[in-house]
Amino acid sequence: SGALGDNPTAPGPVKFYPYLSGERTPHNDAQVRGGLTGLDIASGPTDLTHAVMTGVSFALRDSFEALKATGAQLPSALAIGGGSRSDYWTRMLATTLSIPLERPDEGAFGSALGAARIAMCGDTGADPATIMTKPPIADVIEPQADLVSAYDEAYAAFASAYPKLKAMP
Known about the structure:
With 169 residues, this protein is mainly alpha-helical. It has helices at residues 45-69, 87-97, 110-124, 128-131, 148-167, and strands at 15-17, 35-37, 77-78, 101-104, 137-141. Helix content is 44%, strand content 10%. The strands form two sheets. A three-stranded mixed beta sheet has the order 3-4-5. A two-stranded antiparallel ribbon has the order 1-2.
């Protein structure tokens, strides 16, 4: 993401549908395949990088929307894993989801720590409220208000493309 600068821009004409080996949540469809659209002779590496990051962000929003549909209240979320080290991507994700993202001090190890905590509760019978405490937060990334509507529009187009992709052989 370094070549893209510090702050995300609006989604561009190149679109990426990240269904390279199917999609589990929320579609539960191992057969769907994705790809790139909107390429032209002027498309360059930064266009492709931006499209891939946007497409993956939209796939995460698909899962986010599925959680919200259950009645879950998600006013913010933790950004964990290697991607959370990228200011650009965490800003893009915050904007895509339209919620603040909190980055823990040790965010790159978040998923492993979470799995270990779940195992600890299962193995010892420990109270999850005691074991699964929120980690110390290093910073909070807010959505870019000037881009939220552009990302909402682009997400709607992304979501409407799924049935068309599913129908393709």
